[in-house]
Amino acid sequence: MKHPLFLRWVPLLCLVLVLIAGVTLRQRNSKLVTRNNRLTLQNDSILSVNLQLSKEISKLQCLLDSLRLKNGAISSTRN
Description:
- By secondary structure, the chain is an all-alpha fold.
- It has one helix at 2-78.
């Protein structure tokens, strides 16, 4: 008599455990999506700053090259 009762509760217990696991995984996934979105925004911001700095470095490099050329031309006329 106890054996059929056990067979009824095992599938129900398994179903409850699967439902709990599903809810837990959904909550975990939601947290991970939120964190991922936050990191994506931070990454975009960092990439934007890096791009701006690269442009500034390129401009400064051109100015430095220009000054070197002018300095070289002045030095060669003095010699």
